[in-house]
Amino acid sequence: MGVAPLTVAPFASWLIAAYDWRTAMLVIGLVAWALLIPASFLVRPAPQPAAPSTTDTIAVPETEWTAAQAFRTPQFITLALAHFGCCAAHSGPIFHMVSYAMICGIAPLTAVSVYSLAGLSGLGGRLALGALADRIGAKPVLVGGLFVQALCVATYLAVGALGEFYALSVIFGLAYGGVMPLYAVLVREFFGARIMGTVFGAVSAFASLGMALGPWAGGWVFDTFHGYAWLYVGSFGIGIAAVAVALSFPSTRRLDPASLGLGRAAA
Q: I need a labelling partner for 42 at 20 to 30 A (CA). Which of 33, 100, 160, 195 fits?
């Protein structure tokens, strides 16, 4: 995900310049098809845990969540709204990054490099923030990353030169790229691995709505006000709201559903 903007974006820009956008989309789609489908067959299933020894002390198993129980918790709603706000805040600036740089007088191919640098920084952010989350916990790293992301969005109002765009892309990429994997970590920590796919899929559905909102809102803002200022103002506000929502997510791992009144009998 971090390498793709560095490679595909310049390739797409060259295809558009040499042919047109339809040809570019067709070629990129065929390349993705040729790469992703064969690669998917190389994914191996996770190893099964070894059976416990009969000499080991038998531990009392934790009460497992069901998806229905998880979806009724404030914690799920909090995480889904935080992911929505996170994606709604950064998707508009990301998708309109090249257009905004061009409006500021940067040449098209150079403007694409601004986006590519942000994607490469996102690769570093995933590694750096992931390692930090392993040390101090996913929640504080998520909150900090969301706050830096919101500040970067607001900073777009003050940049215009190529060097400023490059510097901001590095920090912005580290922030938005680094926070994305942390939602899956929090889902697993709180709800467990057994229903992680279902719960994270639902959380990601909210994120997809946020990703769809930002580019559309940015286009509407530009067509209406002939500039991107209100896009960055609105995205900053949504980003700060995502920080506040993420702060309310509990730090306790895997509470018993019965303690929240979500036992099987209540289900």
A: 195
